[in-house]
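note to self — DONT lose this again. spent like an hour looking for the file last time. sequence + predicted structure for the chain T wanted, 181 res
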Amino acid sequence: MGDLRFERTDEMLQIYFMKLLAEMPFEQISVSKLAKASKIDRTTFYAHYENTYQLAEQLIDQHIDFIERVLKESSAQQQYDSRFDSYDYFNTELMSYLLKNRLEIQHLRQLNFGLNSFNVKLRDLFATAYSRIFHLAKEEFSQYILTTLAMSNFDFILEKQRVPSKKEIKEGLSKMASYFS
């Protein structure tokens, strides 16, 4: 029973944190404001988190963990079935998640936490996954291009609320290649 209450309180803290983040800059969100908005005592907040940075980082990690899980599932499925289209699978799974969590992710991406920032963690996740999938060293230039393409795909989905088609990607890459001819 105590765990369920703790989980509910944690969920409420996350919900009200995101509501406040939509209304004001992160630096203006204090534990007092969050406690007041979520109708809890400050000591209850501290039973869950050390500070608002830790709360924000947990929210970032939850989203990154989901994306990592989908990437791993896609990669694993590709190993078992050569006809499996990992691009379509990954983007179908990712698309519904991003649409559901779009505003929250956009707000979290604005937070500059250095190596703990959403974009830094996402870029690292893509770089690690693609170096494993395509057998590329992390320092290879093609690895950087693939990672940047993945980040652009992510941006596109959040902004346009749709997945770019393979045709669009090929045309875009072809245009880019023509600039270097």
